[in-house]
Amino acid sequence: MPTFAELGYWKVGGPCQRFEVVEDAARLRALIRGEGSVFVIGNGSNLLVSDDGLAGTTVRLAGALRAVDVVDEAGDSVELRVGAGLLNAVLLNRYLGKLAGLAPLVGVPGTMGGAVAMNAGTALGEIGDVVLRVEGTDASGDAVTVQRADLPMAYREGGLPDGFIVTTAVLGLSRVGAADEVVRAQAHLERRKATQPLALPSCGSVFRNPPPDAAGKPRAAGQLIDSVGLKGWRCGGAQISEKHANFIVNCGGASATDVMTCIHKAWSTVRDATGVRLTPEVRVVGDWDKKLWPLGGDPG
Ligand SMILES: Cc1cc2nc3c(=O)[nH]c(=O)nc-3n(C[C@H](O)[C@H](O)[C@H](O)COP(=O)(O)OP(=O)(O)OC[C@H]3O[C@@H](n4cnc5c(N)ncnc54)[C@H](O)[C@@H]3O)c2cc1C
User: Fold this and answer.
1) Pairing of strands 54-61, 16-22
2) Entry pTM
3) Which of 20, 46, 164 has most ligand 1 atoms within 8 Å of its beta carbon, as the pocket-test mutant?
4) Residue 176 and residue 70 share a domain
5) How confident is the model over 181-237, as pLDDT tens digits?
6) Which of 62, 76, 91, 139 is within CB 3.0–4.6 Å of 175 for a Cys-Cys bond?
7) 34 lies in the same domain as 70
8) Mapping DSSP to helix (H, G, I), strand (E, B) and coil, where does residue 67 land?
9) Confidence of residue 296 (pLDDT cuts 50, 70, 90)
10) Is residue 52 located within the same domain as residue 107?
């Protein structure tokens, strides 16, 4: 069975107990009905699984669940039906510059399912801005369609019902403004290259930015971690990036525990120094030493 170190961006984490590549929604429904529940991994770019790996069945969506089709057009408006297993990079390669609305996915190295689950986004917007509805499988293995109005999407929070697996997302895009979007996307990518440690394995921002302070001043998680002197702090092969303190990078040979120790160090040091309790953006899965996760324990 593959390990999460092989499947995910951080290149850490133990084995899947069982693993299946699922090629259509009918197979997904049958698996959920047979097993009770399954865990879905997208591109593993926002996921930390423990060194013990994960019990049960992990699935990755492929085949028909990576298809993309125009399903409706009216004037300049286009409805695009995107398979949840499709990589954002493939979608952007095909449609950026032709249809406006995809800019929030520029530089986000995940799948459509992961983007919806996380309400992925950047300074250019969030995927929730263009989602019209999602189709998927609920925790009982039944096919369900959820309209955007019924999804409580928020900052890096997809609002999916528990156990819901997205199989396709229908996006409302426009033929107007597509060329301008390319210009903004290119400038955005340049900014990322200058400020983020993209040469080493990571899962992007580890913590969400906290709400503004009492005076209404915006706060960035990376600045808070930097302010407590943790840039460059290391545990084994994992390091709080010297380039961007909200990134934890795998410098080579890191374990999931090394990464989690860095997360815990950043969280507890910021809490002790500033009173701010940062909220992780990365999804944490599997069994952990209770001193490290959930956050709040004492790493000793
Ligand atoms: C270098 C780098 C930069 C990044 N920059 C950004 C950024 O600017 N903005 C941003 O928002 N994120 C960013 N990320 C984080 C990450 O790419 C996004 O959160 C992305 O949307 C995760 O998608 P994924 O397919 O990799 O999901 P995974 O990491 O595989 O999974 C994340 C969660 O989504 C769930 N999930 C995956 N697929 C489905 C599905 N089909 N149905 C239901 N649940 C599902 C998983 O179970 C898991 O809980 C960055 C990551 C990296 C490595």
Assistant:
1) parallel
2) 0.96
3) 46
4) yes
5) 999 999 999 999 999 999 999 999 999 999 998 899 999 999 999 999 999 999 999
6) 76
7) no
8) coil
9) confident
10) no
